[in-house]
Each structure stands twice: as structure tokens, then as C-alpha cells.
Design goal:
The protein is of the alpha+beta class. The chain has 2 domains: about 40 residues, Arc Repressor Mutant, subunit A, CATH 1.10.10; about 90 residues, Lrp/AsnC effector binding domain/regulation of amino acid metabolism (RAM) domain (Alpha-Beta Plaits, 2-Layer Sandwich), CATH 3.30.70. It has a 4-stranded antiparallel β-sheet with strand order 2-3-1-4. It has a two-stranded antiparallel ribbon with strand order 5-6. It is flat and about 55 Å long. The N and C termini lie far apart (about 55 Å). This is Transcriptional regulator, asnC family. It comes from Heliorestis convoluta. It holds the Pfam family AsnC_trans_reg. One of its GO terms (molecular function) is sequence-specific DNA binding.
């Protein structure tokens, strides 16, 4: 199977991982067995890391607090930011972690039940790590779009159409 065909399969799965192998095979014009084998290979070599649903938790829970935390780190000899990043991403509260360019080195996204829970994570777990110099926490006030999905529901327009 060509790299282009694998990329087509990955693109389809990224948009909707609920599709069956048969549906994907039909979309890319390949036999189901070949698509199944490609998906298995992509899972084994960790190209496909996880299948997940994007949930609008505000619909089912009272409060979910998301924070984006900028972290300034002193890089370590021979490993740079990797050891500090590994210590941070092992916390279950951490949803994502990226090395960034600019004024801060790492961008950490966490979720908690309350602002206090997030604040305690920063104060007691993150800011006290060796080699962490500074943090800046930004709380998400409203999510409009995430992973291509729009969260904001638009009310139906009940106005009458005006014709010339």
C-alpha cells in the first residue's frame, strides 16, 4: 500500500473513527482486508495512538475548568527539555503538552473540576518541579471550536424571508 493511500485512511479516521473498515475501504477504493492490515500496521507502529470521542462536557457536568499553562524551563545538558516534559506529561491532569517557541518553553493543557483544583496543580505539582522557572496560567472561558468540531450552537433563525 502506498504512503498516499495510508494518508487517506488516516485522514478518514481522524475525521470519524467510528467508520467501519468496509466503509473506509469503499471511500479509498481498496479491498477491506488491505485497509484492515494497514490500520493494524499503523496502530502497531504508533502512527495511530488512540481512538477518541470529542465530548462537550458542559452538556453533562456542572463545571469543567480547562487551563493552558505556559511553563518556562531551564534546559538540561544532553536532554534539553525532554526530562522535564516527561515528568509533566505523566500527571493524569495533563491533557496535552508541547514544546513551544517564544517567551515560554512548554505549553501544558490541563482539566480540573474547579479553578481551585487547577490552581493547586500548578502550585503544588508543576511550579515546584526542578528546572521550572516560571508559569503563567490562562483559563479557558469558552470553547468555540476544538479538533474541527464547533461547540457553539446557533439558534434557528425564525425571521421571514424578504423577497424583492
Amino acid at each position: 500500500m502506498s504512503l498516499q493511500e495510508k494518508k487517506m485512511i488516516l485522514d478518514i479516521l481522524q475525521k470519524d473513527c467510528r467508520l467501519s473498515v468496509d466503509q473506509i475501504a469503499l471511500m479509498v477504493g481498496l479491498p477491506s482486508q488491505q485497509v484492515q492490515e494497514a490500520i493494524r500496521e499503523l496502530e502497531e507502529n504508533r502512527t495511530i495512538l488512540k481512538y477518541a470521542a470529542l465530548i462537550n462536557w458542559e452538556k453533562v457536568e456542572d463545571e469543567v475548568v480547562t487551563a493552558m499553562i505556559d511553563v518556562k524551563v531551564v534546559p538540561q545538558r544532553d536532554v534539553g527539555f525532554d526530562q522535564v516534559a516527561e515528568r509533566i506529561y505523566r500527571y493524569p491532569e495533563v491533557k496535552s503538552l508541547s514544546l513551544m517557541s517564544g517567551g515560554y518553553d512548554l505549553s501544558v493543557v490541563i482539566e480540573g473540576k474547579t479553578m481551585k483544583e487547577v490552581a493547586l496543580f500548578v502550585a503544588e505539582k508543576l511550579a515546584v518541579l526542578e528546572h521550572v522557572q516560571a508559569t503563567a496560567t490562562h483559563f479557558v472561558l469558552k470553547r468555540y471550536k476544538s479538533d474541527g468540531a464547533i461547540f457553539d450552537e446557533k439558534a434557528e433563525d425564525h425571521r421571514l424571508k424578504v423577497s424583492p
